[in-house]
Amino acid sequence: MIFRNSLKSIYRSIGKTALFSILIFALTLALSLAMSVWVAVEQFLDDCDEYYTTIGVVEYRGTEYPGDTNYEPAMAEALQSFDPSFIAKDEATLMWETPSRSFGYVDGFWRSDAFMPMKSLSVFVVGSVVYSEEDQFYTAVVYKTLYSSIINKNKKIYIDEEFGSFEPNHFYLVLGEVYHGRSPIYRLGVSPFEQSISDSYGKKVIRILDITAENEEDFYTLPEKSILLQVADSLHVINNSVLINGTNNLMALLPFHEQELYFVDGRTFTEAEYLNGEKVAVISDLMAKRLEVGIGDHIDLSASVSNVPGIYNSYWVEDGFSFQDEFTVIGIINTINDKSWYVYVPQSSGVPYSQFPVGYTVGFAVLDNEKALDFYIRTDPFMTNRLQLEIYDEGYSSTAIPYQTILRTSQIVAIVCLVVDIAVTILFGFLYIYRQRETSETMLKLGAGKSRIITYFLFSAGLIALVAISAGAYAGYKLHDQVISWVAQSTDNFSLIDARYSNGNLTVSKTLEFMPNLTLHLFLYVAAILFLFVIVTCLFFTIGTFQSNKQIKSLSSGPKREHKTSHLTGGSGKFALLSICRGGTRSLVVPFLATAIVIFLGNLSSTAIRYSEQIEDITSNTTIEGYFTDINGKQIGNLVLSAYNLRNFYSADFQDSLSISRNLSYLYHGVSRYADGTKNPLEPLYVPRNSFLRESIEASIERGPDMVFTNNIRTSPEFYFADTLVMNFMEGYDETFLSISTNDMEELSCIITSSLMEEQNIQFGDTIQLINNGITRNPEDGLQVYTSMDVRVIGTFEKQGAADTIYLPLSSIFDTNIIWDPEKSALNFAENNPDTVSYEGYVQIMLDTSFQSANFTLKDSHDLAQFKDYLINYGFSQVREAGSIREFIVIKDSTFNSTIASITQQIQYINFLYPFLYVLVGIIAITASYLLVVHRKGEFAIHRGLGSTRIRTFFSFFLEQIVLCIFGISVGFLLWHFIWENITLLHLEFAAGFAICFFLGSAISIMIMNHSNVLTILLDRE
Fold first, then answer.
1. Which of 424, 436, 414 has its CA nearest to residue 533?
2. What residues have CB less than 8 Å from 512, skipping those under 6 apart?
């Protein structure tokens, strides 16, 4: 009987049943979809955290960077003042590791790569030596090779006469540098090995030793204890050496992290192998083939360390190795030229490591993916003395940030849906159950009992909720695949970082597909929770119907004293003002609500404006720099950059400054004129007719230091990463002379290293002569001479590398007006005077002219996106992504992008959340105004009963609400202005919107009450 009657109650209120069924269905569907997106995206972000590894690499950007085996004394000095403990202890750091490297050797492995440290050095026996007076060199035959990676016995060879004297019919043991000239016959030059050995071991190395045998039948006799034999044995090990890399996380090493190195067979080290110091190794495929070993085979690995810097100074045959042991090959990786001889072992495997830095890597940190940006912001200020921090995240930020934004958005939607669900559920319980309290009272009087009444109400309400919630959850389950697909497609709209050309995009980019695995269980959980809440709410309201509704009337103590009424003219206005004055607490509700809403809206508007102002402030006060580089984003010098492209690059008018440099090797020839004007004529350096001597001179010039022609010394490759640059100038000069056109100079000037000035006894104002490999004719005798430049020394600088670089104005080698002032350029002259000068000829000159480095500063950070569009359209290449023009550009905007993205993300949340809040404020305004009017139905009845017209009644109540609302808004604005901030136009617009909603709600409620007859108003129980 109870269940049947409960079902009938559903049919009796079919309109209310249908309305709440639709509402609960829609809200359940929205909530389940929002929750599915929330769970799916959170699941994906967890997968991202496992899939991606973020590392922060600290490097020393020395003058020879990015050499991986170099030793630079300045780096050792910089590291003395660098304490990495603050990185290791940072909350974002999961692991910190400093490089552990040492000189190694694997018996049986041989190298043939271009990176062999002393590839051209050879030790061999020569005989049949003949001197050529015409060519001024010796010709000899190699009889025996003790060590050489280039030449074998029975080969003819030319020997530089600087080697020393050779007697006919004698045999010699020689040490020298073997190289090719223009002829196919090898040449032997003086060895640079001597200084290396003398510095490292204090041993004097000779380059020639007569070993002619006393017995003519034996020809020659090799000495048993000769330094040259030791050199030969040492060279064999050094040139076939391996670099041992000890690590605690192989896959986090930069080459593996960036997928430059990867496994072709086997595996990486296990945690147990790291901890227990197992003798296991990972080698290159090339090494495995040459050693003829595979997975599970063993190699004999030796290591050597010394108390002098330089990895290749670690071994000398007399000292032998510091460590030898057998290692098991567990992994084979691909072969790349500059790392084919690397061996990787656990850091705890017992191998001794060099106490001096090898290469430019200071260390790396494995970071928490989400905290990498904050880590960079905290750590980067400590990167001084050429230390640089780069973050490599495998594309985590590009992938995660859009989904993080979607996650926050889905959470907001889910919470809003949940709140609305709760509100609708409460409304459902109130209207569907509590409004039937008369029914509850009747059933109690008829003896139905509370348990049966509870069953009556809960069965009908629960059935409605069960059907609607189940249908909504099932519909959400069926639709969630389409919603997830839409989420995946919409990530581009939520991508907040433009990574094109950015230094934050130097990392390799891995892709993880968004494929969440959601089952029906999630939707059942949502449905069960909602259904349980509906039952609890309905139970609460059912119990509420059992409470007594009888009102206790207070006894009258007698007739009240009548107060004299104020007399005001104005009809409706009079009643409105009297009602406000007599309203007491009631009259305070609207002003209090309006004041609170105005302050709330002030917070909303000020937050949005504050974020926008922050973006504008950061953009306006940020200087963004960039530079041309190689395909890996490492080098900033030794590039090949077209003058034609640089001219077009600058003419796009995005750059505030452009610094360019071009290098040319030089040979210092002497002082051609002293500061006091005294000339010191220098004999030209004639081009030898002897091709051997000519090649020797030209090779000597090429191996020498550089003249750097630039318009800005501070951004030249040598000083680009330097914190300080110490310079001294003659009175009246400074470094700006480098950017002046030579047409505006009295004579060509330069700045040189202080060490060169001291060594050559050069004074300020002296004019020095520099020779390069260009060839011209001497006007005095018509003979070929090497070209020279006479430049006056006006300044010095403290060099930061080993070379004595000399800096000269860029305009001394290139018409800089072509780039910076086209109106004055020869190219412009050619264009305007085609009969005099060939325009095409000048264009071809630009196409044939190249520079070694270029860097720039963006004129306006607001134009960053347009600048990147221009680079894309022009065809410039990005790191690891070649365009139509093979010139790679990196823009140093990662910190700027991340900061802006963080603020933009908050703005997106605001833009998504605020409409809900504005709607909520509007609903509050309408609802509050409705409730505040409707509860005064007695006053409406009195007005109407006393004969007041509908219009007068309407304005009496409406004017009251207007006055109260405007008063509250005004108070809110005054408090906001004096306590918090100034009032903005957006704040005024929001407050006006609230006022309109409030007035609208008041007007609607008054009209509803006004159009009802007096009896209906009095009998209405609501």
1. 424
2. 44, 47, 48, 51, 52, 399
Are 282 and 349 in contact, with CB atoms under 8 Å apart? no
608: closest CA among 390, 907, 407?
A: 907
Pick the residue with more confidence: 492 or 339?
339
Picking from 250, 903, 269, 292, the residue whose alpha carbon sits closest to that of residue 622 is: 903
Amino acid at 1015: L
Cβ-contact 507, 393 below 8 angstroms: yes
- Exposed, middle or buried, 784 (CB in 10 Å: 0-12/13-18/19+)? middle
Element (H, E) at 257: helix 254-257
Please write the tens of the pLDDT for every residue from 12-37.
667 667 877 887 888 888 888 889 98
125-169 confidence digits (pLDDT tens): 999 999 888 778 889 999 999 999 888 888 899 888 888 889 888
Three-state DSSP state, 156: strand
Distance CA 852, CA 639 (A): 4
Residue with structure tokens 């008041």? 1002
Query: Could you read off the pLDDT of 347-378 as tens digits, one per residue?
Result: 999 999 999 999 999 999 999 999 998 899 89
* Distance of alpha carbon 119 from alpha carbon 285, whole angstroms: 22
Under 8 Å between Cβ of 236 and 109: no
Q: What is the largest CA-CA distance in the chain?
A: 154
Cis omega (within 30 of 0) for bond into 66: yes
User: What amino acid is encoded at 109 in this protein?
Assistant: F
Kindly give, in sequence order, each residue whose CB lies less than 8 Å from that of residue 897, ignoring residues fewer than 6 positions away.
497, 498, 499, 502, 504
- Burial code (b: 16+ CB inside 10 Å, e: under 16) for 717-740 equals bbbbbbeeeeeebbeeeebebbbe
Please choose, from the candidates 902, 56, 864, the residue with its C-alpha nearest in 3D space to the C-alpha of residue 500.
Answer: 864
Mean pLDDT of 744-761: 88
CB 991 within 8 A of CB 604: no
**What are the structure tokens assigned to 695, written together?**
């090649």
Dihedral of the CA atoms 538, 543, 545, 548 (nearest 10)?
-160
Which pLDDT does position 994 carry in this prediction?
Answer: 81
- What pTM did the predictor assign? 0.79
- In 807-884, alpha helices (H): 817-820, 826-832, 839-848, 864-874
**Separation CA 168–CA 145 (nearest Å):** 20
pLDDT confidence of residue 869: 94
Task: Tally Cβ neighbours within 10 Å of residue 261.
Answer: 22
Q: Kindly list the distances between the CA atom of residue 285 and the CA atoms of 236, 303, 337, 409, in Å, as whole numbers in the listed order.
A: 22, 21, 11, 49
Q: φ and ψ at 1004, to 5 degrees?
A: -65, -45
Cβ proximity of 457 and 489 under 8 Å = no
Q: Residue range 875-889: average pLDDT?
A: 92
Q: Where are the beta strands (DSSP E) in 654-716?
A: 655-665, 667-673, 706-710
